[in-house]
Amino acid sequence: MSALLLRLAAPLQSWGVDAKFERRGTERVPTKSGVIGLIAAAQGRQRNESMDDLKSLHFGVRVDREGVLLRDYHTAKNEKVSYVTNRYYLTDAVFLVGLEGDEKLLSGIENALVSPAFPLFLGRRSCPPEGQVSLGIRTGKTLLEALQEETWLVSDWAKKREAPEVHLRIVTDAGEEATNTYFQRDLPVTFDQTHRKFGFRRVCQSAPLIVSNSHSRRAVTLKPTAHEPMTELEEA
User: Fold this and answer.
1) DSSP characters over 129-150
2) In the chain, is it the N or the C terminus that has fewer CB atoms within a 10 Å radius of its CB?
3) What is the C-alpha to C-alpha distance for residues 151 and 198, in angstroms, rounded to an integer?
């Protein structure tokens, strides 16, 4: 088994699960439906085509930078009615996404991401990715191994603003043996615009990956001193 790794980063991302009417929210990590949609666009698939091969891939996310939640307030009006919408985004987030499965399928996905048939976006069309998306295939690695062993993807400049010790969350599809799982409705049944449909998948959160951040400006350096103020009291 092998794992394909993706870097999903941009000024804005939005990964909606329950986005209806005037409120369009975002999850704090990329959704499986959103990533499958990105891959399908890269491969040039039509919305009414089957996604069963992509759905079968074991999916996981490592949160390399959480990002900040942003609310975009909209007003719209026509001749008869006016209304307000609230759209939510993640700003400056960085995610490492892993897909585990057959290496031939992963190789086809990687080639499509390098030369996509349709434009790529991170959850919404207003959120194009920045930089390289595909990081390549890690042959012989399980999904969790690949997510745990990959180098922290945050730039040296951004690391200065992070803590001296960073805990990176890892969220994956839940296996049979997993405990403390929950259900999330982001498994695409069909992307057909006449009747979009999504199913549920079991999700679990693994132990966080602890990274030592030597670039942090938040580290406190204690300089040793020979001065001992209590000495005067002892002599008295």
Assistant:
1) --S--EEEEETT--HHHHHHHS
2) C
3) 33
- The DSSP code for 225 is -
Amino acid code (one letter) for 12: L
Give the model confidence (pLDDT) of 141-195 as tens digits: 999 999 999 999 999 999 999 999 999 999 999 988 888 899 999 998 888 878 8
pLDDT at position 177 is 83
Beta bridge partners of 13: 90
CB 12 within 8 A of CB 92: no
**DSSP 3-state of 17:** coil
Tallying the residues shown for the chain, one arrives at 236
Domain spans in the chain, listed from the N-terminal domain onward: 2-235
- Alpha-carbon distance 162 to 87, whole Å? 27
Nearest Cα residue to 215 out of 148, 154, 151, 147: 154
Rounded CA separation 55/43 (Å): 15
Tell me the pLDDT tens digit for each residue of 68-99.
Answer: 999 998 887 877 888 888 899 999 999 999 99
The Cα diameter of the chain in Å comes to: 89
Query: Cα separation of 26 and 106, whole Å?
Result: 27
DSSP string, 152-217: P-S-HHHHTTS-SEEEEEEEEE--TT--S-EEEEEEEEE--TTS-EEEEEEEEEEEEEEEE-TT-S
**Separation between Cα atoms, residue 59 and residue 128, nearest integer Å:** 21
CA distance 175 to 179: 9
Domain 2-235 = CATH 3.40.630.30? no
